[in-house]
Amino acid sequence: MAELTAHGAHPPSAAHATATGISNAKMGMWAFLGSECLLFGALISTYILYRHKAVSGPTPHQLYDIPFTSVSSFVLLMSSLTMVLAVSAIQRGDERRLRVWLATTALLGSVFIAGQIYEFTSFIRRGMTIKTNVTSGAFYVMTGFHGVHVTIGIVMLLSLVNLSVRGKLPQSKAEVVEIAGLYWHFVDIVWIIIFTVVYLIH
Amino acid sequence: MSTPVETEAELEVDEALETRQHHPSDLQYIGIAAVLAVLTATEVGVYYLKANHATIVVLLILMVLKFTMVVAFFMHLRFDSPILRRLFVTGLVLAVVIYSSLLFILGIYHV
Amino acid sequence: MTAVEAVRPTSAPATPPRFLKRPKATDGVVGWLTTIDHKKIGILYGVTSFIFFLVGGFEALLIRLQLAQPNGNILTAQVYNQVFTMHGTTMVFLVIMPMSAAFFNYLIPLQIGAGDVAFPRLNAFSYWLYLLGGAFLYSSFLLGGAPNGGWFGYAPNTSITYSPGHNIDFWIFGLLILGIGSTASAANLIVTIINMRAPGMRLLRMPIFTWMALVANFLLLFAMPVITVALFLIMFDRQWGTHFFDPLAGGDPVLWQQLFWLFGHPEVYILVLPAMGIVSEVIPVFSRKPLFGYPVMVFSGVAIGFMGWGVWVHHMFAVGLGPVATSAFSVSTMLIAVPTGVKIFNWLGTMWGGSIRFKTSMHFAMGFVVMFTIGGLSGVTHALVPADRQQTDSYYVVAHFHYVLFGGSILGIFSGIYYWYPKVFGKMLDEKLGKWHFWVTLIGFNVAFGPMHILGLQGMPRRIYTYSASMGWNFWNFVSTIGAFTIAAGTLIFIYNVRKTDRHGAPAPDDPWDARTIEWITPNPTPEYNFIETPQISHQDEFWHLKYAEDDDGRLVKIGESPDFIQRRARPDEHIHMPSPSYWPLVAAFGLPVIGYGQVYRLWGISIVGLIILLSGIYAWGLEPSTEPPDPEYPEEAGGDHAQHELAEPETQLELTPAAETTDG
């Protein structure tokens, strides 16, 4: 009788056929990002709800430095560009360019975070802390969550640079970078929403 | 011995593999980034105009445009399998609907 | 012959230190601590959640002892608050959800013809977070007092002003830990179901349990983040001085309720959909009829999943949100009864005209249908706002949700336990004891919770620790307590059944129930590797169609014997290459309760230690390959997952072959 192809219990990975042709890891990341929409939605809604409810000041709107925040928003936006250039590089097998673009993305992300830290410390110096009023509380919690997500992203990017330096991120593993990229872009689009809804609309 | 019947998902795979050949080039990515930069500059410009309902609507439209471009092109969703799009959009639409309802119920339906 | 595989270059050190070597054991303590096998993880979830069921049940008995008579003095008010809070928190988060996870984990890969879930190590991580999160929650009893703000934690009662101890902090961080595990598990199972189905298994050919699991896991994926935010907000109020729920500072306690119930309502469908899926598997098998209206059952499940997001304000009808919100949600709540009602009729339609076998599993399934209907009906009465103004915060609500959660989910879960016991453990639970278990439980349950409808309408509020003798509530409270102890007796019968089966039970035959779905194609108990040959699917209820066809009059005709299809190895001693176990999910999970303790006590040093443990665990996990290369000791493993392993010859075919040969000549 014909030898039947057998599968031991099949560790699923990008290399194995899936019912949809999409890798498990990529689908898993998109599912996670769908879930994150609910997370950031709640945080942003809390801010919108409490925007005009402060009983004492100062409130964020009195302290925003829009030119400064515009620049840091632009920086984060450009980091999405360098991220896709990194993905594009590794898909072509260019491991050196991959590292350059990944490091640049991490750098731009760090500049953004530095900008956030500067912004927050200046707010605190001018008398607006997390407990000053409901608006400031909502502001710091929302942007704080975002900042933590960016920081985790930076750590991931640097880990990928490290892996690449050690020769463990070849062209065949381009999808790992792509999936990290998805996370990074998501963090960027959350900021696109926050910048408009929180900073620009009043 | 029954032959494997193609799942409709498998048919979608073929479709996905076809569209996946469309990778924007590096130059196109830079172009998209340039558009995003212009949109951001426009947003900041609108911010400095006198705030009214119209400016709010414009800002929101610009925001949605930027959001969509990053998701569609940088996150490659435009060229990927529809399944991924459905996964993400479900979460997104759900979030928008329930949180809008929440804000409406709690009395905030104009900013 | 076995293929020669190119050896992958490893950049790991030539001889890693002993404690960093990848574990290989699949049994013993190390085997269970490092397992990534969905079946073992399912068993871990099942056993752990059953133990918590006993704990939560014990808490229930304490409640009922305290309320059996007026002016009860068995528990002080302070202790009572902890007991009823932990009873609810335990039953929801540490019993029903993980018990459903037990079924998801064990069954889903088998029902779709896969070898495991999409992310086996993440799966283990989710389980350890459950166990450690539950332990973290319960450690509060020894550390100053358990959570005492109700399972729903309403603000401002849970604020630092009104709850100054650490009780609520344990609740917050415990639920956050559990929530991470649930969200990860949800993503894992969703990817598994969408992406790892056997060839031919279109979505509308999947077993109905897997469908309900898919919907429930989508609900989990999207609902958990909402309560996560709510918990962070109350945490910030308590520990960082924010004012999210402080009306004096412009905050709104109602925001807590909104966020909690935005999570909480989808949560109740998370709690009941898996049991509905179980019952939808059991009833067709024991009626020897296909599920009536399978596509409608699928779509009504999906509809419940969507509509479940549109009814949450019905938990807040007495809050004063105004007529617009209140009436809109009243209508949506009435509407959601429709897909639910459809399911009831379809279960009845399945049984109608069927050839019913009254096994214990079927008893529990039928019990589910009746009890859940009762609970659903009281739920519909809640949808009417004027009626709900009377019912809300009274024992009528307690009756309602116990009918749907105990009469529904728990009975459904027991149905599943009796049904799949042979598959998991290779033995059949005793039927006679099972029926005693069922009847004692059913009677006890109705005696415990039926009267609560009356008590509620007589005005008895929820969450009170005692009542005065002149309220007129004495009799039914006493009766209810008798019912609770009767349930306990039923549970003891079940425990005895399990023990007896474990010691003296005969091995289960293949396909003991003449089932319909492909998890029964594997031997009992399921071997480690699940399927030797990936099943090819051409029907819904594929296994049934391998065994039976219908003649022109629509009567069943047997076309195959179960043993023909059970997949056994030709060479039972052969090693089959399996995905490798791993320490790291357990290590990483361990970091989270450490962070939790650090946060409860505001000791940042401890939190940092926990963070380091978490990050190191994740980092090591990321660096190790998901599976080690095949073991050189066993040449038959060479080729890894694509090694060729032969199926044993089906027994009946051996008899046919000689006859065929002679006719050919």
Summarize the SSE layout with pairings.
The complex is a heterotrimer of chains A (202), B (111) and C (665).
Chain A: H1 24-50, H2 60-63, H3 66-91, H4 95-125, H5 134-165, H6 174-200
Helix pairs in contact in A: 1-5, 1-6, 3-4, 3-6, 4-5, 5-6
Chain B: H1 8-20, H2 26-47, H3 53-74, H4 82-105
Helix pairs in contact in B: 2-3
Chain C: H1 28-33, H2 38-67, H3 77-112, H4 120-139, H5 167-195, H6 208-240, H7 253-287, H8 294-307, H9 323-351, H10 360-383, H11 385-391, H12 395-425, H13 431-457, H14 474-504, H15 542-547, E1 548-550, E2 556-558, H16 562-565, H17 584-600, H18 604-623, H19 651-664
Antiparallel strand pairs in C: 1-2
Concise description?
The complex is a heterotrimer of chains A (202), B (111) and C (665). With 202 residues, chain A is an all-alpha fold. Chain A is 73% helix and 0% strand.
Describe, in plain words, how this protein is organized in 3D.
The complex is a heterotrimer of chains A (202), B (111) and C (665). Chain A has helices at 24-50, 60-63, 66-91, 95-125, 134-165, 174-200. Chain A has 202 residues and is mainly alpha-helical. In chain A, helix 3 runs antiparallel to helix 6 (174-200) and helix 4 runs antiparallel to helix 5. The N and C termini of chain A lie far apart (76 Å). Chain B has helices at 8-20, 26-47, 53-74, 82-105. In chain C, strand 1 (548-550) and strand 2 (556-558) form a beta hairpin. The model of chain C is unreliable at 1-16 and 652-665 (pLDDT under 50). The chains are: A mainly alpha (202), B mainly alpha (111), C mainly alpha (665). Chains in contact: A-B, A-C, B-C. Chains A and C meet through helix 1 and helix 5 of A and helix 5 and helix 6 of C.
| Largest interface, Cβ cutoff 8 Å | A-C, 48 and 70 residues
Number of strand segments of chain A = 0
Categorize the overall geometry of chain A: elongated
- The tally of helices of chain A reads 6
What is the CATH fold-level name of chain A?
Four Helix Bundle (Hemerythrin (Met), subunit A)
- Helix-residue proportion of chain B: over 70%
Which bin fits the share of residues in helices of chain A?
over 70%
Q: What fraction of residues of chain B sit in β-strands?
A: under 5%
Q: Radius of gyration of chain A over alpha carbons?
A: 21 Å
CATH class of chain A: Mainly Alpha
Global mean pLDDT of chain A:
91
The low-confidence runs of chain B, each spanning 5 or more residues with pLDDT under 50, are 1-6
Strand segment tally of chain B: 0
CATH architect. name of chain A: Up-down Bundle
Supply the helix-strand structural class of chain A: mainly alpha
Q: How far is the N terminus from the C terminus of chain A?
A: 76 Å
Average pLDDT number of chain B: 83
